[in-house]
């Protein structure tokens, strides 16, 4: 399993000095990026092919949020490729090797010009070593059931700081947007996100929200009600 060692930074913690969900998510994304770069099939390599990896769905389970300056290890391993997609696990461990968080993710290999899924080339897929799927969570199909009685909230525009290297809203930004609707003091133990289409600079996001004592669901959509992303918190 590929991994790197780190410590929880001041920029990654909340007002209680605990690492945020978004910082954990970003650590997982960084780990997958480092992994691909070290194998020689990173961003520049797939860009030359006019290809890109796009995240389709996440499931992240939190056992414990690490604290400021705590030593952590972030690890990842791919466990399945199809013709068009790849599946990848992540985990975060503390200094004793105990599980802090783990995740499952589904990625789609895309033609960057035509903006549609394309066949995964052998020189990309063959660079990775498949490993057994982690047993730290229940696996699901990634589909989130949207409640019927959603409440519309104030729309807001996409800004430059929301964008990633692919020039669309980074998947972690959607999660951070959605988490703003949770009540104060709610501790996220599980997050699922399903990404439907890319929001770009200048787009306006229309949120719909359903929150209860156990968590909630947030749909971040366009003016016609078509979702960019659906996020579920528990």
TrEMBL record:
Keywords, alphabetical: Fatty acid biosynthesis, Fatty acid metabolism, Hydrolase, Lipid biosynthesis, Lipid metabolism, Transit peptide
Acyl-ACP thioesterase-like C-terminal domain ranges (all copies): 151-206
Domain Acyl-ACP thioesterase N-terminal hotdog residue range list: 7-126
GO molecular function: acyl carrier activity; fatty acyl-[ACP] hydrolase activity
Pfam families linked: Acyl-ACP_TE (PF01643), Acyl-ACP_TE_C (PF20791)
Entry's family note: Belongs to the acyl-ACP thioesterase family.
Protein name: Acyl-[acyl-carrier-protein] thioesterase
Species the sequence originates in: Hominiventricola filiformis
Lineage of origin: Bacteria, Bacillati, Bacillota, Clostridia, Lachnospirales
């Amino acid at each position: 399993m590929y991994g790197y060692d780190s410590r929880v930074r001041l920029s990654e913690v909340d007002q209680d000095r605990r690492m945020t969900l978004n910082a954990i998510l970003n650590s997982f994304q960084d780990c997958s990026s480092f992994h691909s770069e070290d194998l020689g099939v990173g961003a520049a390599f797939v860009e030359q092919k006019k290809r890109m990896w796009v995240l389709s769905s996440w499931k992240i389970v939190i056992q414990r949020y690490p604290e400021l300056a705590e030593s952590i290890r972030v690890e990842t391993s791919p466990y399945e490729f199809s013709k068009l997609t790849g599946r990848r696990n992540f985990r975060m461990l503390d200094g004793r090797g105990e599980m802090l968080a783990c995740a499952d993710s589904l990625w789609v290999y895309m033609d960057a010009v035509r903006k549609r899924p394309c066949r995964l080339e052998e020189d990309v897929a063959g660079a990775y070593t498949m490993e057994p799927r982690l047993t730290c969570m229940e696996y699901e199909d990634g589909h989130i059931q949207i409640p019927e009685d959603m409440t519309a909230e104030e729309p807001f525009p996409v800004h430059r700081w929301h964008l990633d290297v692919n020039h669309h809203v980074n998947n972690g930004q959607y999660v951070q947007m959605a988490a703003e609707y949770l009540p104060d003091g709610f501790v996220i133990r599980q997050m699922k996100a399903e990404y439907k289409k890319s929001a770009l600079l200048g787009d306006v996001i229309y949120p719909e929200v359903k929150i209860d004592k156990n968590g909630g669901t947030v749909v971040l959509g366009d003016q016609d009600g078509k979702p960019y992303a659906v996020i579920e918190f528990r």
